[in-house]
Amino acid sequence: MELVSSQICKTGDIGIYDNLFGGKLLAWLDEAGGTFAASICCTPYMITLKMDEVVFKKPVKVNDHIRIYGEVKRMGTSSLTTYLEARRFNFSSHMEELVCSTTITFVRIDEYGQAVAISEEIRQKYEHLTNK
Length: 132
Description:
Layout: E1 2-8, H1 22-41, E2 46-51, E3 65-75, E4 79-90, E5 95-108, H2 120-125
Antiparallel strand pairs: 1-3, 2-5, 3-4, 4-5
């Protein structure tokens, strides 16, 4: 897996019980995954089709650093499925702890919002993941 994004939990990101608001973390995952998918597919035109189940395993507090890692799980004709993990990073111990993970599917679109094929060259690069 590769590092896709990192975030710092700020006071404005906190919900009840002094934890990171879950919707904020979902937005971070979606944005990181979309950017990751766009860079792989060499296009800015990627939209979220679906996000699978997310289980929040650990709380995130103010000033916690969150690292989001991703990898391609499946490549379709116009879609790309990514697996993402959000990990809390501890600067003192240099350890990471899994906060949550999910699978998100993105679709390549044109300027009119219609699905278009990911280039054959890119799909061949991920041929081993096609149609799984």
